[in-house]
Design goal:
The structure is a single chain. The protein is about 30% helix and about 30% strand. The protein is an alpha+beta fold. It has 3 domains: about 140 residues, no CATH class; about 100 residues, SH3 type barrels (Roll), CATH 2.30.30; about 90 residues. Strands 1, 2, 3, 4, 7, 8 and 9 form a 7-stranded antiparallel β-sheet that branches. The radius of gyration is 36 Å and the shape is rod-shaped. The mean pLDDT is about 85.
Length: about 375
């Protein structure tokens, strides 16, 4: 220990001794008053709780820092320390940020600061703060910030990470991920006690058209947007993760895409029908040079292709005008029909509809036989 550090340590010990002689306590009246008025959630500037020798090595001016109080006991506080240096990663639930409003003024001991930055609280270590370490009351974060903090502390606890909660109830929000027994859910809507969720799975093995990959901290899931569940709002205590902002946005876009697709599919099914079995060969009674292959009807029109175009790579669909004047004489075999449908420029829903109609008609013909 160098001479300057030795003098520093001795001076602090002497000051505490004098304080004890004067008042019988190692803290001042002002410190005790701040302690008595302190509440869970308050931010209090405190001297870093470390021995005098280690405190000497701290950069001058940084010996005191804000602590957010998460528990108050008989003669000491428990809180998380903060720094104004932004951590490299804010998505691993180790740090919690309280962000300064643009128009927010900051005062320390009644003096307005010319500048103020955001605060980042380290949630990996809770500190034991004695009354003698208390500096001054700084601020009380708004309820939304405290709810955000409690949510992250709950996630830490449910993932077997060190966490001391404030025992606040908070609301679940879009993108929150909760567990209920062996089931996991993605919250897509929440208002007060009304919480709605989609099921989450570890893979995309089934119902693939309705599953979207969701990324959260250190884990990914598949959300099934075809599954709707209303959850008990008390499940907030079971929150285990949060989807990233990008994933929340991608899920919403995916849902809009599926909704549009389903709407088009329903419209398609309402408008489309098959008057004959798809693949029926027919000629117009007056224009007998061309054989047409009937495919489907939509609203009041029927469509098909020329038989001679079957071998072409690109087949052109045309309207079968004066449809009632066509005479059918055969049915395209199934293998040729399937190859033909694959070559059309129909979308998947259209192809599936035509194939489904072919299957229905074939079953009907078998039953008639």
């Amino acid at each position: 220990m160098n001479i300057n550090k030795f003098k520093y340590v001795i001076k602090r010990k002497c000051n505490r001794f004098v304080q004890i002689i004067k008042s019988g306590n190692n803290y001042t009246k002002e410190q005790k008053e701040i302690f008595d008025n302190a509440k869970v959630g308050d931010v209090i500037f405190c001297e870093m709780p470390m021995n005098d020798s280690d405190l000497y090595d701290v950069k001058p001016g940084h010996e005191q820092r804000p602590y957010i109080i998460v528990e108050k006991r008989e003669n000491y506080l428990l809180g998380y320390p903060s720094s104004h240096v932004r951590p490299k990663c804010l998505t691993n639930y180790k740090y919690f940020g309280i962000y300064k409003s643009i128009n927010e003024d900051c005062y320390i001991r009644g003096t307005k600061l010319d500048s103020w930055t955001n605060s980042y609280y380290n949630l990996s270590k809770v500190k034991h703060i004695e009354i003698r370490n208390i500096g001054w009351f700084f601020q009380r974060p708004n309820d939304s910030d405290l709810d955000r903090l409690e949510k992250i502390l709950t996630i830490r606890k449910n993932n077997a990470l060190k966490a001391m909660r404030m025992n606040r109830k908070f609301n679940l929000d879009k993108g929150d991920i909760v567990a209920d027994g062996d089931k996991v859910f993605y919250i897509y809507s929440s208002f007060k006690d009304d919480v709605y969720a989609h099921s989450l799975y570890s893979d995309k093995s089934t119902n693939t058209d309705y599953r979207k990959k969701v990324y959260a901290y250190n884990k990914s899931y598949y959300v099934d947007i075809s599954d709707f569940t209303q959850l008990n709002s008390d499940l907030y205590q079971n929150i285990i993760n949060q989807a990233t902002g990008e994933s929340i946005k991608s899920v919403e876009e995916f849902k809009k895409k599926i909704k549009s697709k389903d709407s088009n599919k329903n419209k398609l099914e309402k408008e489309m029908h098959c008057k004959l079995i798809p693949g029926t060969l027919m000629r117009h009674k007056e224009i007998t040079d061309y054989v047409n292959v009937y495919l489907f009807s939509r609203t009041k029109k029927s469509y098909g292709i020329y038989y001679e175009d079957i071998e072409e790579n690109d087949v052109l669909i045309h309207i079968l005008k004066r449809f009632r004047e066509y005479k059918r004489f055969d049915i395209l075999d199934r293998e040729t029909f399937d190859k033909l449908i694959e070559k059309t420029n129909f979308d998947e829903d259209m192809r599936n509809f035509i194939i489904k109609q072919r299957n229905i008609w074939e079953e009907r013909l078998i039953q008639e036989d």
